[in-house]
Amino acid sequence: MKRLQEREIPLVQNGYYYPTRWLGNLVTRLGADWHDVFCRGTWSDLELKKNHLYFCTETAWQPPFALLKLIQNVYPSLRYYFEAEGDEWDAYLTNDAEGKYYSNRYVVDCEPDIEYFDTIEEASNHLSAYVGKPVAATWQALCEAADEWNADNPDTDWFINVKQIEVISNEEL
After folding, report:
1. Nearest to 170, CA basis, from 91, 70, 103
2. Model-level pTM?
């Protein structure tokens, strides 16, 4: 990946804004046809720490699950962990059930920031402070508090959104 992103000319010609970091280059380097593997996007923040490789992807329409499966097929001893989020496909996912790399399970999006929380209690405390009244530490209560605040504040440019990060297995990809 490092060699691919440092190339002057991408391995495969493409129209992406970072053409050498286009996922199709990686698919091709791994020996597959980029037409057959969903690779609509790029990678960034490539970092190798000890025996761990970290990188982010920005993709259209869905996470690059087919690419993760291809990497796993090429490197069968490799284990990967991810967190994927996308409002367009309304999904917040991770395969890190133990929370070793991605411990966040809740997202509270309210002005001015999007905040991530490991527990529902933390998310509830944050939302309670924002709306100015206690919110019970349940998923239903978080949703109801957000809906109520949004209904009571129709003239604002910002709405409260709460998301739950779902834990899925690699087999579900």
Report:
1. 70
2. 0.86
DSSP strand pairing (91-94 vs 83-86): antiparallel
Query: Looking only at Cα atoms, what is the longest distance across the chain?
Result: 56
State the Cα–Cα distance between residues 51 and 83, nearest whole angstrom.
19
* Cα–Cα distance, 119 to 103 (Å, whole number): 9
| pLDDT tens readout for residues 23-74 | 999 999 999 999 999 999 999 999 999 989 999 999 988 889 999 999 999 9
Q: Helices marked H in 9-167 — which ranges? A: 23-29, 65-74, 120-131, 139-152
* Two tokens, residue 106: 């809740």
Which residue bears the tokens 């720490």?
Answer: 49
